[in-house]
Amino acid sequence: MDWQRSLRGRLAARRVPKKSEQELKDEEMELFTKYYMEWKGGRKSSNTSYMNIPRFYYRLPAEDEVLLQKLREESRAVFLQRKSRELLDNEELQNLWFLLDKHQTSPMIGEEAMINYENFLKVGEKAGPKCKQFFTAKIFAKLLHNDPYGRISIMQFFNYVMRKGLVEPSRGKNGTFPQSSSACLT
């Protein structure tokens, strides 16, 4: 009867002196500390990306810090110059209109010229690097309405480019007004 022997062996093993209440608590605390440190240590080493977040706020230089104020003014001027170079001038706008007109897709709706996405991308490649920002799928989708052929109006697209070209200089001019550049006009 193997089961009798196994039961007696089990009972004999049970009779081993029990650990005291304090020993059980100490063992539990030891295991808890061990597993907690593994969890905390493993998590800390795998996710340190928060340490690489760049600083995004710098206080404004005080009135007595002349060098820092000059540096701020100069860097702002360089930034605004770079932004103004990205804007389209009259010649580039005329070239864009010529390319759009050349690549229009038939049939016309009334007197309004239309362009499909394929030709839209071709114009984007030929228009140059300054115009590249306007030839995206997102902008095409914004201007796409209820055309059965999946086209957009050339005039609407050109007006969109013109409006964006007028907004950017306005932002730049507004940015030059306040001396503190605290994002509020006084």
From TrEMBL:
<dbReference type="InterPro" id="IPR039865">
    <property type="entry name" value="PPP2R3C"/>
</dbReference>
<dbReference type="GO" id="GO:0000226">
    <property type="term" value="P:microtubule cytoskeleton organization"/>
</dbReference>
<dbReference type="GO" id="GO:0043029">
    <property type="term" value="P:T cell homeostasis"/>
</dbReference>
<dbReference type="GO" id="GO:0005819">
    <property type="term" value="C:spindle"/>
</dbReference>
<keyword id="KW-0963">Cytoplasm</keyword>
<dbReference type="GO" id="GO:0005813">
    <property type="term" value="C:centrosome"/>
</dbReference>
<dbReference type="GO" id="GO:0045579">
    <property type="term" value="P:positive regulation of B cell differentiation"/>
</dbReference>
<dbReference type="GO" id="GO:0001782">
    <property type="term" value="P:B cell homeostasis"/>
</dbReference>
<dbReference type="GO" id="GO:0035303">
    <property type="term" value="P:regulation of dephosphorylation"/>
</dbReference>
<dbReference type="GO" id="GO:0030865">
    <property type="term" value="P:cortical cytoskeleton organization"/>
</dbReference>
<dbReference type="GO" id="GO:0005737">
    <property type="term" value="C:cytoplasm"/>
</dbReference>
<protein>
    <submittedName>
        <fullName>Protein phosphatase 2 regulatory subunit B''gamma</fullName>
    </submittedName>
</protein>
